[in-house]
Design a protein that fits this description.
alpha+beta, 4 helices, 5 strands, 26% helix
Length: 88
């Protein structure tokens, strides 16, 4: 992504609807709104975690699926360390 925006967890939490769906994992923020209709397990699978820390769900995905996460990255979580959280 381009310049990194920094978001508080409170700002991320406001994006908690299927039509405005952000997640964060390992210090990175993702806007997954546009991807919801394409998720193999269905939009609801992601939307129920909108606005929250989705690190457990991020870690569940194989590296091949994480490329989608990289395309959705919009910034960083304020104060979060991103050591070891490179998306491949």
């Amino acid at each position: 992504p381009g310049p990194q925006n920094v978001f508080t967890t409170a700002e991320i939490a406001r994006h908690n609807h299927p039509d405005d769906c952000w997640l964060h994992a390992h210090g990175r923020v993702y806007d997954v709104t546009a991807y919801l209709p394409y998720h193999p397990a269905g939009a609801r699978t992601i939307a129920r975690f909108a606005g929250t820390d989705a690190a457990v769900h991020f870690d569940f995905h194989p590296k091949s699926a994480r490329s989608v996460w990289a395309q959705c990255e919009i910034g960083r979580v304020q104060g979060a360390e991103c050591t070891g959280c490179v998306v491949m």
